[in-house]
Amino acid sequence: MKFFKNEMVVEFFEDKLAVGGLVIFLILSVFALFPSLFSYQNPYDLTQLFLENSFQPPNHNFWLGTDEQGRDVFSAMIYGLRISLYVGLASTVLSVIIGYTLGLISGYYGGWIDTIIMRIADIQLSFPAILIALIIMALWGEGIGKIVIAITIVNWVYYARTARGVVLSEKEKDYAQSAKALGMSNFGIIFGEILPNTTAPIIVIATVRIANAIILEATLSFLGLGVPITQPSLGSLIANGYQVLFSGYWWASVYPGILLMVLIISINLIGDRMRDVMNPRLKR
Amino acid sequence: MALLEVKNLKTYFFTRNGVVKSVDGTSFSIEKGEILGIVGESGAGKSITGFSILGLIDPPGEIVEGEINFDGRDLVKLSQEELQKIRGDEISMIFQDPQTSLNPVITIGEQLMEAILYHKKGVSKKDAYNTCVEILKTVGLPAAQKRMKSYPHQLSGGMKQRVVIAMALLNNPKLLIADEPTTALDVTIQAQILYLMKKLSKEFHSALILITHDIAVVSQLCDKIAVMYAGRIVEYGKKEDVIFNPLHPYTKGLIECLPKLNDDKKRLYQIPGIMPSLLGLPKGCYFKDRCEFADEQCDVYPPQQEIDKRIVFCHKVK
Amino acid sequence: MSQSEVKLLEVKDIEKIFSVKVGTFEKKDLHALNKVNFNIYKGKTLSLVGESGCGKTTVGKVILGLYQATDGKVIFRDKDIAKLEPSRRGDIQKDIQMIFQDPYSSLNPRKKIKTILEQPLKIHTNLTKKERKETILSLCDDVGIDYSYLERYPHQFSGGQRQRIAIARAMILKPELILADEPISALDVSIQAQILNLMMDLQEKFHSTMLFITHDISVVKHISDYIAVMYLGEIVEYASKQELFKEPKHPYTKMLFSTVPDIHTPLATESVLKTGEIQSPIDLPKGCFFQNRCIYKEDSCTMSHPELVDSGNQHLVRCPIVLKQQTID
């Protein structure tokens, strides 16, 4: 495993763009993990906001300006980044767990279990993801926990379908057959034997889909159905600033927008490289 | 002059873990209408030798040294465009798995005709069609006209390999390189295909290089044999000499360990050990760790010797 | 067959029918096995020989339990296991182990060698961790695996080494019956002999019984006691090794012998081109299955399906033409 990991890690670092993406992502993660170290004020704490500071353009006190409540845009962005990343990661972890498990079961057992799970997936895929999320959020109302669940419901399908596809070929391989011949339980074969051999595509998709989840959250928040402005994510910051964008206060929405873009690009660069490194078909 | 003369060919792969000397100084030649067998285990460099002749070595691989003189040209010096014109026309290749050498979504007929029309400008579609039907009959495919409209998946493995052979022969190549052409086939079909290849290479006056791990197949088909081990040729000569009077211990072992139909003893002769990794070759003779005759003399790589009408690399052969 | 031979496993009339899709909606039956009968005797090796598609691997998988027979019985220790999945066979399964053809896919790429070897012991024995380790180490000596291999992963080994590991896994429970499905055909020639010798040594040491499945009739001579030649899902010839090699009788067996590459025989001649190909196991002909490739074909061959008949000395042949000639001689 050590050798195998090293091989992949070495290959990953051969691509300068991917390394750049990783560095940016790590820096952003540090910001998101310890927001209070980097920010001028806590944007959640209303006692730290002063209305007389509202709509200040970028200056030496407020590097990226303030919004209509006198909230420092830079501080708000760091806290927003934290929420965006949290929603992206949490919903991805949840959808991997649910989708991966269902996909493994579906592919391994086949028959009516497979039919039920895959038909649900098909139906869901025939609607735009945003529409499903919109409906769920409209019914439930806003909130971080709720948006994580909504994005999970949208995203599990991708993992389920991928996992199912891989299992279909893996379960016919002799190592799985020999485990079966040993009298191993189906549970043991699926999770003990097959699962470790199907992780590569799941990891690749998960990396790419984190970005997707973050965008979905931002979109929902922008539409006012995501997280409340009292706990702003990047999406709600953009939405908030957008209302005053054409009044000349461009900084309140443009800077969060740029940060969101940088975040997504860095994740996608990592994801692309992961796909190159982990896809055995692209390798010689 | 020989049709193909390979001189001191070196094809190296520059990998992350070091330089893999897949082909390390092989020399052989082949005349018109001759059949040369290259035998060796997987990783011995026999396929890479074939790919090098065709100019199909991609990075991190590279032909670092040597000449491949084919019909008055050095193929090593040609550009990819020039090689492209030679491939499939003057030199064709037959691969191990007919499954992957045919396009699954195009009919047999279209694939065959394209092979003609690409290399021969000014041939009418009708002429090309007729040539294709003719060649399918030559390789023994029943109902040739009907088969022109078939897709590869509608044919059995043996039939597909016949189509691949037909495609290789279409432009009447001067040299045919067959890389394990029968390994994926059943024994009875293998015999048919081998017979067919021998017959056709004589009929078409093509030279044939047969690359295989099976020394029995080589002995049935070839005029000359080159035995490769860890990237180098260890014995090279006429079939009768190499098969019936092998000199190199490895060649001897390969022949000895074949199961024989007319032999009653239970245990088989075995060569101990495995071929060394190309990244960790021993000092001196590469075969010494598996050789019963090896001694300190073998710590130096043996020089080329010409003994008994063949070339052999071994200190212990006198 | 002498009286001293004890039946270990009895295969009685097994049939296996797969349903395959032809066209978009239509399904047809594929008769992979048609009433196959044979016995495997304790301590002996039976070889199943035939080309791809003849059903030899299917027989192995039915005995192992990876396929359930459509009909018929497989009797092992007085129990019919033909339709039982491995997990429902209980203790019996411990005594039937398989060596697969492709050592590249039969070992889980994500498991260390020691985990792979330990797994059968964990499932089927109550040995302590220490005892398991001892069992593994002693077996490593037998099959020629270096102790240092145990901490490594399958991809770090060559084909021959992997097959040794696969053999060790099959042997670790000291099974009574070993099913070997083309165990050497994916290996290099110089390694084939090593593995074949190893299997014979181990069989002697552990007194195990073997079903050896192969397409290569030249290998069979060294390892088998009895040989069954299969064609399109049925046995066409069955005899002891000496009998069969003395005088192969069925036209198909003769064809196999004549097409094996051998350095001492020249390449088969023009006649080999007329031998045709195996036909599809869907829509089998009414008469003899081998009729389209047979050089002895008569009109009667297309009429009725021949039975497997003893031609003397327990040499069974499914060809009335051969039997007829024999009585005339």
Summarize this structure as a short list of keywords or feature phrases.
heterotrimer; B: 318 residues; alpha/beta; eight-stranded mixed β-sheet; four-stranded antiparallel β-sheet; 11 helices; 32% helix; globular; C: 329 residues; 9 helices; 12 strands; 23% strand
Percent of residues in helices of chain C: 25-40%
Query: How much is the average pLDDT of chain C?
Result: 88
Number of strands of chain A: 0
Oligomer: heterotrimer
**Main sheet record of chain C:** 8 strands, mixed
Morphology of chain C? globular
Number of helices of chain A: 12
Please give a quick description of this structure.
The complex is a heterotrimer of chains A (284), B (318) and C (329). Chain A is mainly α and 284 residues long. Chain A is built from twelve helices and no strands.
Care to describe what's here?
The complex is a heterotrimer of chains A (about 280), B (about 325) and C (about 325). Chain A has one domain: MetI-like (MetI-like fold, Orthogonal Bundle). Helices cover about 70% and strands about 0% of the residues of chain A. Chain A contains twelve helices and no strands. Chain A has about 280 residues and is mostly helical. With about 325 residues, chain B is α/β, with parallel strands linked by helices. Chain B contains eleven helices and twelve strands. In chain B, strand 11 and strand 12 form a beta hairpin. The model of chain B has no long low-confidence stretch (mean pLDDT about 85). By secondary structure, chain C is an alpha/beta fold. Helices cover about 30% and strands about 25% of the residues of chain C. In chain C, strands 6-7-8-3-9-10-12-11 form an eight-stranded mixed beta sheet, sandwiched between helices. In chain C, strands 2-1-4-5 form a four-stranded antiparallel beta sheet, with helices on one face. In chain C, strand 4 and strand 5 form a beta hairpin. In chain C, helix 4 (about 160-170) runs parallel beside helix 5. The mean pLDDT of chain C is about 90. Chains B and C meet through helix 8, helix 9 and helix 11 of B and helix 4, helix 5, helix 6 and helix 8 of C.
